[in-house]
Amino acid sequence: MPPNHTICIRKETSFTNSSANSKFAISFMKLYPESAHLQLEFDKIKELLAAHCQSEFARQKAAELRIHTLKKFIDIELRQSHEFKQLLQNTIYFPNDYILNLAKELKLLSIPGAVLQGDQLLQIRKLAESMEKIFRWFDEERKQVYGALAELIRGTHYEKAIIKLIDEVLDDAGVVKDSASDDLRDIRMNLYRKRNELRHVFEKIVSKLNKQGYLAEIEESFMNGRRVVAVFAEQKRMVKGVLHGESDSRRTAFIEPQETMHLNNEVSELETLERKEVYKILRLLTAKLSTHAGVLSVYHSIIGEYDFIRAKAKLALDINGEFPVVLDKAHVQLINAFHPLLYLYNKKANKSTIPVTITLDDRQRILLISGPNAGGKTVTMKTIGLLQMMAQSGLLVPVHPSSVFGIFKQLMIHIGDTQSLEFELSTYSSHLIHMKHFMEHANGKTLFFIDELGSGSDPNLGGAFAEVILLELIRKHSFGVVTTHYLNLKVMAGKTQGIVNGAMAFDEKKLEPQYQLIVGKPGSSYTFSIAERIGLDKRLIDRARSLVEEDQYRLDKLLNRTEQDLRDIAKKDKELQILLKENERLQKEMKQVMDKEKHKQQVAVLREQNKISETRIAYLKDTERKLKEITIQWKKEENKEKLIKAMTALLFNRGEKQKVSKMQKKIDSKYDEIGGEIKPGGKVKMKRNHQVGEVLEIKGKRAVVKIGLLPMQVEMSDLIVVKEKGTPA
C-alpha cells in the first residue's frame, strides 16, 4: 500500500483533515455568543481531558476539541471511548503505554538530505515496535469485540522493513554497529589496535614518571581529545611534550608526552574517519527510512489517537460517564443526568448530587423553569447544555445509559447580566439584542438557553415581550430551556402547545432548596415566605403584599401551596412504594414457606408409600420361597393332600392377620374408626397410607382433604370416618 494512500485513510479516520471533510462534509456546532463554551464551562471539561493526555498530539486534540454535527463521527467517537473504558474497568492491557512525541523527527525524515542521530532513530524504532504490538493485540476476536478501536488501524498496515533497516545499523544503545559497513569495520579495527598501542606506551611513561615523583594524584587525563599526564607544576619542565593546560589551582600541569604524540595523532585521524563513516551510514539509513515517512506519520497519529481515546475513557471513569443513545434529529431525553463539574466537586466534599431528568421532543420543545433564586434553575440549564456539547464532542456523559441525545447544529445561550459599557447599552437593551439574534437565526436544529427571560425591564412590559419571544421561538420549532419569575409566562406555558412548565423543588418550612426539577407544573418564587423566614419586619412584608395585585398574590400563593402539596404527595407515594415492596417481599417469603411445606408433605407421602411397597415385596418374596419348597416336596411326598392344603393356606387364607405398620399403630393409638357418612369438617383416615385429615368439601365421588397444609383430592371409597379417642362420637 503506498504511503500517501495510508495517510489519506488516517486523515479520514481522525476527521481533522480536508480530505476527510470533503468525504464526510464535516461541520461543527455554531455557538452564540462566541463565549458560549465559557458560559457552559466546556473549557473546564477540556482542561480535565487534557490532564489525562500523555502525548502532545492528544493534548493538542483536547485543546481543539470540536462539537460535531455528523452522527457517524459522534457514534464512532463515543463507541471508542466506551470500548476503552471497558478495557480500563476490566483491567485489560492495551499496548499504548509507550508515549512518543516525534513530530520533529518525522518532519526531518521527510526533508531530503536530513540525517537522524542514533537516539532519534531508536525512537523511530520504538514507534514501529509499538504499532507492531497494537496490530498483534487486535486478533480476529478483539476486532469484533472492540470494532470502534480497531477502526483506527483498518486503513493502514504494519511495515516490517522499518525495524529491520534500523536493526541492521544500530545496536540497542543507538550506536552504529561495526557491521554497518566494511569501511567502518576496518576503521574501528585499526582504531582498536592504535588505542591498545597508545595504552601500552602511555602506561610505561606513567610508570617511569611516577617513580621519578613527577606525577600528581590524578596521574593521567584527557584534554582536547588527547591523552595527557598530570604533573606537578614545578616539575613540568622535566617532562618533554606539549602543555595542554593547568588545573584551576595551577598546582597541576597536563602534558602530552612526546613519545605518544604520533600515536595520538593517528588515533585522532582514525576517530575523524570513524565519525565521517558513521555520518555517511546514518545519512543512508535516514534516506531509506524516508520512503516510509508517510507510514510512520500515520503510526505517530494512531498512537496519539489511542492516547486521546484513553484520556476520554479515564475522564469518563472520573465523572461516571456512560454511552447514551444518539439520534440524528433534534431531541433531548436525559435520565438521571449530572453536571460533571458539580458531580466532581460534591464527590470530593463527600456530598450527594441531585440528578436531572428531562425530555424535550416534538410535543414539548421548550421547558420553562420557575422557582426561587439559588434553587438550581441555572445549574439545571447548564447541565443540559454542557452534556449536549460533550456528547456531540464524542465524550461519555454522566447520565443513565438509556438517555437519548439528539444532534443540534447550533447552540445559543444568554445567561446573566450582559450590559455593554462599550456600546452604552443597558442590561435590558443588551438582553433584547441577544433575543433579536435568537429569533432571527433559530431553527428546528437550534438548542437555546435563556436565563431570566424578560428581566431588566418593567415586569408587565418585559413579561409581554417575553411572551412574544417564546411564541416566535416555538414558531421556529427550536428547542430550549428558559428560566423566569414572571407569572404571565407560567400561565402562558400552561396553555401553549410546545411549552411545558417546570419547577425547582423548595422546602418552605426549612427554607431550603431541594435542587430537584419537577416537570409539568410551574413553581412559586417564595418571595414573601423567604422574607418572613429571614426575619424581615412583618409590617414591611404586609405593606409589600398590599402593593401587589390581589390576583397575582393569590396565584403565587396557589403555586406555593400546590408545590408543597405535590411534595407531600410525592413523599407519601415514596412511602407507599416502600410498603408495597415490603409486602411483595413478604408474599415471596410466604410462598417459599408454603412450597417448602408442600414439598415436605409430598416427601412424607412418598416415603410411606415406599414403606408399604417394601412390605408387599417382602411378603411376595416369602410366598415365592415357600412355593418353591412345596414344589420340591411335591416330588418326594406321597401324601399329596397334605401339600395341597399347605398351598391353599398359603395362597387363599384370608384369615391371616396382616402386619400393621408403625404409622398405622400410631394412628390407631390416637383415632378410632367410627365409619358413617363423610361430611365437610369431619375427620377421615386414608385406608392406603393411614394419614388423617380434615374434609374441606365433597366433589362427586371425591373429597378434598386437607392433610397438614396440603389440600388433596381422594376417592371417597379410600376414606373412613374417624374421631379422636376420648371425644364423643
Report on the structure:
The chain has 729 residues and is of the alpha/beta class. Helix content is 53%, strand content 16%. It has a 7-stranded mixed β-sheet, sandwiched between helices. Helix 1 (3-14) packs across helix 2 (18-24) and helix 5 packs across helix 14 (293-319). The longest helix is centred in the C-terminal third of the chain and has 87 residues, at 550-636.
List its traits.
flat; 21 strands; 53% helix; alpha/beta; six-stranded antiparallel beta sheet; seven-stranded mixed beta sheet; single chain; 729 residues
How do you describe this structure in short?
The chain is an alpha/beta fold. Strand 4 (241-246) and strand 5 form a beta hairpin.
How much is the radius of gyration in Å? 48 Å
Helix content: 40-55%
**Count of β-strands:** 21
Shape: flat
Distance between the termini: 105 Å
Integer average pLDDT: 81
Uncertain runs: 1-24, 417-425, 654-660
Strand content: 15-25%
Q: Determine the structural class based on helices, strands and strand pairing.
A: alpha/beta
Strand order of the largest sheet: 1-11-12-13-9-14-15
Number of helices: 24
Q: Note the main sheet.
A: 7 strands, mixed
